[in-house]
Design goal:
Length: 336
């Protein structure tokens, strides 16, 4: 007995109500195809639950021509070949080989800024397929934090800020190797970075310094959510928040997903800022932070994001709603 392709058997079972008919009346085929397209199927090797009417029609005529054999899966003729122009392929591969930590998003931005491709024309899937064929699809470098898993979003800008510290890389300052820490405050509703700076420690003094700059730049939030670290429980920080009528909330221990957006911000810093940074040209901590903030204002805040719609990240924050603190004043780089 010949083995029949399992895919062909599945497709034949889907077409059963049609192929079992001895004859079809005029217009009946399209009606049956439409009915089959509305049903749900457990499609082998796919998460999809529906099959398109045109796909069903293709299967039906393949069965009419070749029988069950016509329903068997066939490898694509263009498997392993990229449809991208040769010049674009070369630029993608060169960008990845130059810096293996570059993400697909970074490669696309790099080629767009260099004028190799027009903005928005380079498909993420096309880049991924090309890199995969050449064995370059994985990001080489330190592990990154998990992607955001939280679904809660504050309704208005200034309602909630999140604060956290990311352990940064080592830099040479004045001939000495020093570890850095990225201290950040991040608005929940707009995803705007209220302020962020690299520091040489993660004490209450550094955290309060970043808070001061955030308040000067963005105004006063209603609530700040932080972790349970000793620096965030310092009496000085609690006093500052009490004086400014800011509610200081500490996350439950071992609940990192409560600040998922900040963790996603940390990942973006690693993938887009640190991955492109040439550490040999960093003079001191002030120079590092100048470069960071230039990237935040000129790149990060100006990039369209799915959760903020088109335009800058602060688009949802203008104007602040009734839930925000009366003195809140978030702003977008494009609005200044």
């Amino acid at each position: 007995m010949n083995n029949i392709d399992p895919v062909a058997l599945f497709r034949l079972s889907v077409l059963g109500p049609i192929v079992s008919r001895e004859r079809l009346e005029r217009g009946e085929l399209q009606l049956l195809l439409r009915q089959l397209a509305l049903q749900e199927y457990a499609i082998p090797g796919s998460r999809r639950r529906h099959i398109g009417e045109r796909t069903l029609q293709t299967w039906y005529y393949a069965w009419r021509r070749e029988g069950v054999a016509g329903l068997a899966s066939r490898p694509r003729a263009d498997t392993g070949r990229s449809k991208l122009p040769e010049a674009v392929q070369a630029a993608v591969l060169a960008a990845k080989r130059e810096n293996p930590q570059r993400s697909i998003r970074q490669i696309r931005l790099l080629l767009e800024s260099a004028g190799v491709v027009a903005r928005g024309t380079l498909s993420r899937c096309a880049v991924h397929r090309l890199l995969k064929v050449h064995g370059l699809s994985r990001i080489v470098g330190p592990a990154v934090v998990p992607q955001e898993k939280r679904s809660f979003v504050a309704e208005y800008a200034g309602s909630i800020w999140y604060g956290d510290v990311m352990h940064g890389p080592m830099f040479s300052f004045g001939g000495a190797r020093r570890k850095t820490y990225l201290v950040s405050l991040f608005d929940d509703a707009s995803r705007l970075v209220a302020h962020s700076a690299f520091c040489l420690s993660e004490t209450a003094l550094e955290i309060e310094g970043v808070l001061k700059q955030a308040l000067l730049r963005r105004g006063i939030p209603r609530m700040i959510v932080v972790d349970n670290g000793s620096a965030y429980r310092a009496a000085s920080l609690q006093t500052i928040c009490a004086d400014l009528d800011i509610r200081l909330v500490h996350c439950q221990p071992y609940q990192p997903t409560s600040k998922g957006k900040l963790e996603r911000w940390h990942r973006t810093v690693r993938d887009q800022f640190l991955a492109e940074l040439d550490a040999t040209h960093i003079r001191d901590l002030a120079d590092l932070n100048s470069r960071l903030w230039a990237w935040v204002e000129q790149v990060y805040h100006r990039e369209p994001h799915s959760y903020a719609g088109q335009g800058c990240l602060a688009a949802r924050a203008l104007p602040a709603g009734p839930a925000a603190h009366p003195r809140t004043r978030l702003s977008c780089p494009e609005a200044r």
